[in-house]
Specification:
The protein is an alpha/beta fold. It has 3 domains: 2-32 and 205-325, Rossmann fold, CATH 3.40.50; 71-200, no CATH class; 333-524, no CATH class. It has 18 helices and 13 strands. The strands form 5 sheets. A 4-stranded parallel sheet has the order 3-2-6-7, sandwiched between helices. Strands 1-9-8 form a 3-stranded antiparallel sheet, with no helix packed on it. Residues 1-63 have low confidence and may be disordered.
């Protein structure tokens, strides 16, 4: 499927921002740019502008002036450069010591090479644009660029050695360059975790002006507040036809023609344009020109990207950037490889965790009357029912007492934060998902996958709409995007959105990323009840 984004055919619906700024500056009540040092903006004829945050003293607060990079970005990038330098120096020293042991005349060239490795490594990383501010704390793309640097430097050294006929100790190269890459990845991961912790406390955030309709902006605000590790904080909004008031506590500062002014008034460094028919091709291009002058980032989030993002490629044709949407691959060789991976890993985990499983089984049996395992009918791929296995975490009469209880939230999913049916031991098992370990048996039997949507009950499936039923195209999983994004704290709508995103874009690499994130989510125990 090929989609053509909106272009000039819709006409010009947004006024020229440059003319608007000139008119504002010529009027007595015009908005004055924020003073250096975080002073308040002078009120205009309608209302006083919001006070610029005192810790954001950017040149971007002045319309037309280039924005200065935030202090936290400069600090984080400096820490990344320092970490890469230390990692390369350490890797070079270890390779020198392990391969040669002592310094001799023969080893001296490798001493020079080890001394030059940190500078060369930092230059290669910089050339591959792995220090770009937009990549800081991003995760997968940042790590991919580091891996690319390792491969490129290894290939360049091999080619140079071949062309110059220089004999290079292969043992040194095999140790130094892969070790440099590995240590750098670990250091970047540590920096990323540190950045996420600071963002959880409200620091190191990008200030965003959201552009679109009220409903879309409200959803974006809620999502960024819930997932603060993204580092985005919506500080202002611009909506079609403007108006007063706020959206989820975020002030509305004007209509679509006042975006550039709103950026200056709140010292924003990013503009997020949501799906909005009024923001056509001409308006978006002019907005990009205005933001280019202040070095303000522009991100566009069409509604099409919600589910199909990883499968979208841009194919220019006749001067138009056409978005080509590939169909999701839910069958064939990739499914076979996924099934093989699931069963092999599940078998290994079941063998490795057998002492833990035995200990939990004994504890459950001693905790009170009732069986060790809880068996329940769930719905799998294509609507096929199967029996799921879990350690019992509730009292023996839990199913009979369910009719007297009501769910904490709307939707087919029944969940209670403080469920009186859960035993004290069961609460501890649930907190760290230990009660779900027997589901490894379901994975080996082919009923479930290690990663996938949450396994639903038959009564839940009976209430599914056509869109939600798409969750049944793949096997349910022991973990998934819902597990690493909030677990039971998620609303029904958010759980469905995450499951559909997984169905539309699943891959073995995505499964590995989710499995990597699962252990930290389980260790924290947040959102489990």
């Amino acid at each position: 499927m090929t989609v053509c984004p909106q272009t000039v055919t819709q006409g010009e619906r947004v006024r020229d921002v440059t003319a608007f700024q000139a008119a504002q500056e010529s009027e007595p009540g015009a908005v004055q740019p924020a003073r250096e040092g975080g002073g308040k903006a002078a009120p205009d004829a309608r209302e006083a502008g919001p006070e610029v945050a005192p810790d954001v003293r950017e040149a971007g607060a002045v319309p037309g002036a280039r924005r200065r990079m935030p202090d936290w970005v400069r600090r984080h990038r400096a820490m990344a450069v320092a970490a890469d330098t230390v990692c390369a120096a350490l890797a070079g020293a270890l390779a020198l010591f392990v391969r040669f042991g002592e310094v001799t005349a023969y080893v001296f060239p490798y001493v020079v090479l080890s001394a030059a490795l940190p500078a060369v490594w930092v230059c290669v990383v910089a050339l591959n644009r792995a220090y770009e501010p937009r990549l800081l704390g991003l995760g997968s793309e940042e790590f991919q660029r580091i891996l690319q640097c390792g491969f490129m430097l290894t290939a360049a050294l091999a080619v140079c050695a071949y062309l110059t006929k220089i004999e290079v100790a292969r043992g040194y190269v095999v140790l130094a360059l892969p070790l440099t890459t590995l240590l750098t990845l670990l250091a970047r991961y540590a920096l990323r975790r540190s950045l996420h912790r600071r963002r959880a406390r409200g620091g190191c955030m990008r200030r965003v002006v959201a552009v679109g309709h009220r409903a879309a902006i409200a959803e974006l605000v809620r999502r960024f507040r819930r997932e603060r590790y993204h580092g985005m904080e919506v500080v202002a909004a611009c909506i079609p036809r403007g108006g007063m008031g706020d959206v989820e506590g975020v002030p509305v500062l004007g209509d679509l023609s006042e975006v550039a002014l709103a950026v200056g008034r709140v010292s924003a460094d990013t503009v997020a344009v949501l799906a909005c028919p009024e923001m056509d091709g001409v308006a978006l291009r002019r907005l990009a020109w205005r933001l280019e002058k202040t070095d303000t980032d522009l991100i566009v989030a069409p509604a099409l990207m919600e589910v199909a993002g990883p499968r979208i490629t841009i194919r220019p044709a006749a001067g138009l950037p056409l978005l080509h949407v590939d169909h999701p691959e839910i069958s064939g060789l990739r499914r076979v490889l996924k099934n093989l991976f699931d069963r092999v890993v599940a078998g290994l985990l079941l063998a490795a965790l057998s002492p833990l499983l035995a200990g939990v089984a004994v504890a459950v049996r001693a905790s009170g009357p009732g069986p060790v395992f809880f068996r329940q009918t769930r719905v799998g791929r294509d609507g096929a029912e199967f029996t799921i296995y879990k350690f019992r975490t509730m009292r023996a009469d839990a199913e009979h007492r369910k009719i007297t209880l009501s769910s904490d939230g709307p939707g087919p999913l029944f969940k209670i934060r403080n469920d009186p049916r859960v035993t004290p031991l069961g609460a501890r098992l649930r907190r760290h998902s230990l009660d779900e370990l027997p589901q490894l048996i379901n994975v080996i039997l082919g009923h479930m996958s290690l990663v996938g949507p949450r396994p639903p009950l038959p009564e839940e499936v009976a209430r599914y709409g056509d869109d939600v039923r798409r969750r049944l195209l793949v096997k349910p999983g022991m973990t998934g995007l819902w597990q690493v994004s909030g677990r039971s704290d998620l609303s029904w709508e958010e759980s469905v959105r995450l499951d559909l995103r997984y169905v539309e874009s699943w891959s073995l690499m995505l499964d590995l990323q989710i499995l990597w994130k699962t252990w930290s989510a389980v260790a924290r125990g947040a959102g489990a009840y």
